[in-house]
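Morning!

This is the sequence you dropped in the shared folder:
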Amino acid sequence: MSGLYLSKALFPSEFFRPTIDYIVGNQRADGSIPWFTGGYADPWDHTEAAMALSIAGYFPQAERAYYWLGHNQLEDGSWWIQYRNGRVNSYERRESNFVAYVATGVWHHYLITANTDFLSTMWPVVEKAIGFVLRLQAPTGEIYWGVDGNDSVMQDALITGCSSIYKSLECALNIASTLEHSRPEWYFTRLRLGETLRNHPECFDRTWESKERFSMDWFYPIMCGVYSRPQAIERIRAKWDQFVVKDLGCRCVSDEPWVTIAESCELTMALLAAGDHARAVTLYSWLHQWRAEDGSYWTGYQFEMDVLWPEEKPTWTAGAILLAADALTEHTAAAKLFTEVNILNPSQHAEGIDHGQLLKQS
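The structure's back. Tokens below.
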């Protein structure tokens, strides 16, 4: 199916019911949500799928997903990158953006449910996770991307990962404000990170090949609120033709004939953040031709070979579909999470912040 045009207050619940059922059907008894049946779960994509459950009103299932994160959190606040069948599947590393994302998911669920008991229960988990992330901030403001299996810091940073952390810090600050906690160090970390993302590209991709060819490096800073709207509009304009293929979607990388559904959903939200509602609606309308009969969505489409690739239907892709639909229709109270920046009571956290020191350190 293609041509699903969404607008405010027109959320197609029945259309998405099989999509939600697909996610629920893949959730394990312990609350984890693997990529697909028999696959592994990772903390970031698990959370992406859980957010879809909240949007659809499957609150117990969503909360079980977050409690699974709490039960598997390490003492330093982090998670390993993969879990399968109730056990760690890879001890290779713990990634900072994976760890931070719990704050985004928990705040998203609270915005929809207004469940303060849930927020209070998850507060220690969020606090420890953000503590882990803050310890990985470089002197120049970026957040190092991870810690390896020997607890050595992997001293380089990703624009996409740091943009995701930037949004997670916003959500963490809002959780703290709602529960009447002051966290000036979180506020300062976010300020420094934003300054580095906007003005110091040399702090990223220092030890590996540039990730500029990946579309997420282009639009993630927009979706996560790093740029002002005028800056976002210009950033969209600069690379639209490089990444977007008419009637298909957004390329994952600029030099490959491959559009991916999750990235296209996230670009949809970035367009809304930039105020480009018309193109957001149009882009999203192209994506349902990649919907399977069971309501799930394929990862992507290789258009030169005319094949679905890889032949996987991840739960997190279904999650991204629901997040973009919510953003377009404003169906829930969390609909604007990725299209607007909204820090509650910033003065609660900003007291004593020396902005001159911020600029000097960045």
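Headline: The chain has one domain: 13-361.

More detail when I'm at my desk.
O.
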